[in-house]
Write a structure and sequence with these properties.
The complex is a heterodimer of chains A (333) and B (265). Chain A has 333 residues and is of the alpha/beta class. Chain A contains eight helices and 18 strands. Helices cover 26% and strands 27% of the residues of chain A. In chain A, the strands form four sheets. Chain A has a seven-stranded parallel sheet with strand order 7-11-6-1-4-5-12, with helices on both faces. A five-stranded parallel sheet of chain A has the order 15-14-16-17-18. In chain A, strand 14, helix 5 and strand 15 form a beta-alpha-beta unit. The radius of gyration of chain A is 22 Å and the shape is globular. With 265 residues, chain B is an alpha/beta fold. In chain B, the strands form three sheets. In chain B, strands 11-10-9-12-8-1-6-7-13 form a nine-stranded mixed sheet, sandwiched between helices. Chain B has a two-stranded antiparallel ribbon with strand order 2-5. A two-stranded antiparallel ribbon of chain B has the order 3-4. In chain B, helix 2 crosses helix 5 and helix 3 crosses helix 4. The radius of gyration of chain B is 22 Å and the shape is globular. The model of chain B has no long low-confidence stretch (mean pLDDT 92). The chains are: A alpha/beta (333), B alpha/beta (265). Chains A and B meet through helix 3, helix 4, strand 7, strand 9 and strand 10 of A and helix 3, helix 4, strand 9, strand 10 and strand 11 of B. The site of flavin-adenine dinucleotide (FAD) has 28 residues of chain A, from helix 6, helix 7, strand 17 and helix 8. Adenosine monophosphate (AMP) binds next to helix 1, strand 6, helix 3, strand 8 and helix 4 of chain B.
Chain lengths: 333, 265
């Protein structure tokens, strides 16, 4: 094949100068597409003070080309300079596809830029494929609270843009040095921002629920706030983050930052443990792409069991402390 | 100052069905409600009104019956509303929807703030708020969780992201999208319900907004639903009972072992 196809691009995400894991997942996604379409996988990165080593790491994980725009105005995510930066990349390189994480940044920047460059965007995809001849991206996402999957095309507009649900695939690994092109530039002038970041206050919780490998999620079955101590013990033993249903958040037993579901966070951990929760449609919408699901509930007919790999029928107040103890004992062996 | 609230009427999510051919939602015969996340944007605007003099206008793009959603918002305390309705809008994706709402906002004019819900429970994209901001060429702040300070020229707000809270200051005009942390939406008041009776909601169509037909509906939408399908259930749940003393020990042992075998901690 002689024709040169336009390339697949991903948006690398950095926070406080650290490349975020979703970037490596996007490389995994992008490599599958670029191999099939016979084109390059390119990375755009906007930030400040990213080390050469971190840029090379992206190459080593499989990218062919990195374009890094460095500017103090790109240190923290603000819509106007970031939109400027991305629109600049689009007009210079004409990507066929741009993927970004369905993170707070991706879900803000991508819809803004899609309008600016007049193209379509599909949100929160869990599966992606490409037609090798046309380059049409087949974007599949859960719709209507996960009751149904929809495959969406952007047939006539380029670039085709999609945000991808974090943790819906594995991270591309660094398998030793590779050769690739790294372009580092400092844009002279970006649109001045009418928006300014006054301050950032990190969460006190050590582990963030969207990033955690294991999330222990608790429902109304816990009965009162004081009882949460057994959940904290289990989570600590597993080094897990804590999630909650809306019932728990509405009662102020845990803060909203823990809520999983339609009106809370979407999570996709390697292991989800649901304790004393029924598995309502709205809750399931936020966790059904988890890799392994364990549910503990005293009602054998609970909806959550339909979705679980392991379902434990019994009283959480007996099971959870015993499980914590067994896990701790096991760790000592 | 003037605040616009784009409010979407959505089907009750538990009961929706889809047209397998076009991939669009079948709305007939399904109960409709205000997008639950838009209740928070209404609440947020009403909170702002407690601090600063302002006029709050709700807009909704949808079928004629979406007027019900706007009336409910008026009963909660917003000042007036416009219904944007035309057969030509059917099948619009987020590009076309953002465009129509933008044209309506432009027609209203002199807007300082546009406040959207974080996403709608039917489309579930969260793309319309940032889309409106891009058309208006103004800043957008998503995932807004509280208001710190507001004056006629700017406001400072908190935003919840993956690792913490950001405090941001934005000049007006701007678009905000809000999350649940804003606070419990208030209920309609008696005064509000009387207000509904005395309010006429203007209906605007394609021509009123000066929109070309090829920019909206399926024609104006860059994305196409190719197919829809039921997600296949790949999990086969092993139900283990731990509901009496003897089973407890062995079941929990098995569970602990399977968790350890995953080698995640
Ligand atoms: C628009 C909308 C958005 C929503 N968004 C969300 C959302 O984002 N996230 C969310 O979670 N919900 C959401 N909800 C609420 C949702 O519909 C459910 O009400 C909620 O998920 C139920 O929470 P739960 O499972 O903790 O409580 P319940 O449904 O009351 O379930 C409690 C479970 O605990 C079990 N149990 C009780 N005691 C014990 C015991 N001793 N041992 C073991 N098991 C026990 C019971 O058998 C039961 O299954 C939303 C609702 C609406 C309408
Ligand atoms: N048809 C519509 N009419 C009015 N507002 C809308 C419409 N569609 C979306 N919105 C607004 O945009 C937000 C996000 O919706 P969505 O991008 O569809 O998830 C909603 O919470 C509404 O505030």
């Amino acid at each position: 094949m002689t024709a040169v196809n336009a390339d697949i691009w991903i948006l690398a995400e950095q926070s406080q100068g650290i490349i975020q894991r979703v970037t490596f997942e996007l490389i995994t996604r992008g490599l599958k597409l670029s191999a099939k379409r016979n084109c390059k996988l390119c990375v755009m990165l906007f930030g400040h003070g990213i080390s050469d080593q971190d840029l090379q790491d992206l190459i080593d994980r499989g990218a062919n080309k990195i374009v890094y725009l460095e500017h103090t105005d790109l240190k923290d995510f603000l819509i106007e300079p970031f939109s400027d930066a991305m629109c600049g990349i689009i007009s210079q390189y004409n990507p066929e596809v741009i993927l970004a994480g369905a993170t707070t940044t991706g879900r803000t920047l991508m819809p803004y830029v899609a309008i600016k460059v007049n193209t379509g965007l599909t949100a929160d995809c869990t599966s992606l494929d490409i037609e090798p001849e046309t380059g049409n991206l087949i974007q599949t996402r859960p719709a209507i609270g996960g009751n149904i999957m929809a495959s969406i095309l952007t047939p006539e507009h380029r670039p085709q843009m999609a945000t991808v649900r974090p943790r819906s695939t594995s991270s591309a690994e660094n398998n030793g040095p590779r050769i690739g092109e790294i372009i580092k530039t400092s844009p002279e002038k970006l649109t001045s921002s009418r928006l300014t970041l006054v301050k950032f206050s990190p969460f006190e919780d050590k582990i963030n629920i969207s990033d955690a490998d294991i999330v222990v999620t608790v429902g109304r079955g816990i009965k009162k706030k004081e009882n949460l101590s057994i959940i904290y013990d289990l989570a600590e033993t597993l080094n897990a983050a804590i999630g909650a249903t809306r019932e728990v958040v509405d009662r102020d037993w845990l803060s909203y930052s823990h809520q999983v579901g339609l009106s809370g966070h979407t999570i996709s951990p390697k292991l989800y443990i649901g304790i004393g929760l029924s598995g309502s449609i709205q809750h399931i919408a936020g966790m059904q792409t988890s890799e392994k699901i364990i549910a503990i509930n005293n009602d054998p007919d609970a909806q959550i069991f339909k979705l679980a790999d392991y379902g434990i029928v019994g009283d959480l107040f007996e099971i959870v402390p015993l499980l914590t103890q067994k896990l701790r004992d096991g760790a000592k062996l | 100052m003037r605040i616009i609230l784009p409010i979407k009427q959505v089907p009750e999510t538990r009961k929706v069905r889809m047209d397998e051919k076009t991939g669009t939602v079948i709305r007939e015969g399904v109960e409709s409600i205000i997008n639950p996340l838009d209740l928070y944007s209404i609440e947020f605007a009403l909170k702002i009104k407690e601090h600063i003099k302002c006029e709050i206008i709700g807009i909704s793009m949808g079928p004629e019956k979406a007027e019900v959603a706007l009336k409910e918002a008026i009963a909660m305390g917003i000042d007036s509303a416009r219904l944007i309705s035309d057969r030509a809008f059917a099948g619009s994706d987020t590009w076309a929807t953002s465009y129509v709402l933008y044209k309506a906002i432009q027609k209203i004019g002199n807007v300082d703030l546009v406040i959207c819900g974080e996403r709608a429970t039917d489309g579930d994209t969260g793309q319309v708020g940032p889309g409106i901001a891009a058309f208006m060429d103004i800043p957008v702040v998503t995932y807004v969780s509280s208001l710190n300070n507001i004056c006629p020229e700017y406001c400072t707000i908190d935003r919840t992201i993956e690792h913490g809270h950001e405090t941001l200051k934005t000049e007006f005009p701007a678009v905000l999208t809000v999350v649940k942390e804003i606070g419990e939406p208030r209920l309609p008041t008696l005064k509000g319900k009387i207000q509904v009776k005395n309010t006429v909601i203007p209906h605007w169509n394609l021509n009123d907004l000066g929109i070309e037909a090829n920019k909206v509906g399926l024609k104006g939408s860059p994305t196409r639903v190719m197919k829809i399908f039921r997600p296949q259930v790949t999990r086969e749940c092993k139900l283990l009972y731990a509901d009496d003393e003897p089973k407890m020990e062995s079941t929990v042992n098995r569970l602990a072992k399977s968790i350890r075998d995953m080698e995640l901690f």
